[in-house]
Amino acid sequence: MIKRVWQVILGILLACYPLVIYLGLETMPLNRVAALILGLFLLRLLALKGSRLRFLRHLTIPAALGGIALSSAALFLNSQQALLLYPVLVSIAGFSVFTWSLIKPPSIIECFARLQEETLTEQAVVYTRKVTMIWCLFFTINGSIALFTVISNDQALWALYNGLISYLLMGTLLGGEWLYRKWILKV
């Protein structure tokens, strides 16, 4: 139970990564922010050990390892850019995992669907593959915009896009797909 609480707390803190970075860099030296983030990623990696949702580990473990690498680079190279690259890395990891699941089925979205209903029709499996492809496109566009915000050297723009706009876009995609499935497909 305590492990689960820690997983949730760490997940929330890392979901707030752009806010933590933005506020941290405004109030603390870069090395302290990088050390704090490195610690969070190390704890996240430890908290993932033994996770029951194997297909989620394929995304969260690479993201945590990438976060460790980027925060270590920020710490040892004194590079703020390294910390800002994390949302790009998450999009690359998401794209990679979702694409790999299309090459080696079942797709990630099919795995999510099977959590709700074990048996899926062939039509439902085809639909979940299409939704997985849409997520691959989302990760490509999102990662490109996130990279642009890093290159722009505008920390406020970076925080706004990566800490708010990308989450709103992700929520819109999730909600839009759910509405489409419930009211158009009536599934």
Structure, described:
The chain has nine helices and no strands. It is globular and about 55 Å long.
Question: What characteristics describe this protein?
Answer:
single chain; globular; mainly alpha; 187 residues
Mean pLDDT: 91
Distance between the termini: 34 Å
For the secondary structure, the number of strands is: 0
Low-pLDDT regions: none
SSE order in H/E notation?
A: HHHHHHHHH
Query: How big is the Rg?
Result: 18 Å
Quickly count the helices: 9
Strand content: under 5%
Condensed summary:
This protein has nine helices and no strands.
Secondary structure elements and pairings:
Blueprint lengths: L1 H14 L1 H11 L2 H19 L5 H24 L2 H5 L1 H18 L4 H9 L5 H30 L3 H30 L3
Helix pairs in contact: 1-3, 2-9, 3-4, 4-6, 6-8, 7-8, 8-9
